[in-house]
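The protein record reproduced below.
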Amino acid sequence: LVAGDPSGDAHAARLIEALKRRDPTLTVTALGGPAMQRAGATLLDDLTQAAAIGPFDAARHLARFARAKRLLAEHLTRHQPDLIILVDFGDFNLPVVAPLVKRHGIPIVYYISPQVWAWGRWRLRLIQRYVDRLVVFFPFEEAFYREAGVPVTWVGHPLIDHATPSMSREAAAERFGLNRWRRTAGLLPGSRPQEVARHLPIMLAAAERIAWRLPGIQFLLPRAPTIPVAMIDRHVRRTSIDVHIVEGPLADALQLMEAAVVASGTATLETALAEVPMVVVYKASWPTYLAARTVIRIPHIAMVNVVAQDAIVPELIQHRASPRRIAEALTDLLRDDERCEAMKEGLREVKRRLGPPGAVDRAACVVVEMLEKSCSTAVGSRQ
């Protein structure tokens, strides 16, 4: 398996666990991260340390990517795996890994589609040329790839299986040190250090404005495992507002939030599954943002809005993601019960579109099918 960011590492780890349940003798080697290693993969290199946002940020890690390619090439030559699973990470997996794998004649399953339906349509030609089966999370992706002639299976979204809190609201409030009689809002700045560095200062500045307008409000700040505690503490110590930094399953914290400011990404879907009204923000480096503006072909960037195919949550992107605008948007939500309820109904529709539970098990079935096909072909060629 090849995954290159914390989210892909987590999704790949769950897939490895599902495959191991079916066949404990399965040997898995990976370019990935610590979650995949814990799930039973032998790690060739940790690519999550080079997780970047866009090609300009990724350029700083070219030496790391070159090393990963070399290690993978050596592994393919020595061990000739039966199957390669590429996990998202399209800027590396499609132009670099897929051609390398195909030169060795090994079939490829692509798990979690690169967002070619949103930007970089030229990458569709690489998928058509190199990928033997796509496994996708969203129903509109299945329709898109089927029309392009790519073998594709929609399995639903794995987040559905992780949307249930591990404890009651009362227990969570006590564990996180919240005052149950005060209003609670969430701050979700992202899972990558670059995202947190860009988002957390403006989120905290917005929170100060919100606290001035809504006295007594408290804030929950779930820390992603990929973010150092010191990085969060350094920013929070500079504020005078009531911020509770929490750890553990995100669903435990989400159930306590009346509304949240969320960095665009997978967290918007997790927040949607908890039916928490939200304001979505995102800031990238200016070169990445300007480049993205020239290639993005869809009207929304928040996955909640993409899945809904409608602007059900507000998006404040780049220069619009200012403390003043964020504070106004979230305050308006917290003061308008009717608008919150309408947004919750939209979020419930998003949940319905993500499919039933069991997505990872369905994906594992596709992988097993491809493995059996690959092994049968190998036996036939030897005979």
About this structure: Residues 359-382 form the longest helix (24 residues). The longest strand covers residues 42-46.
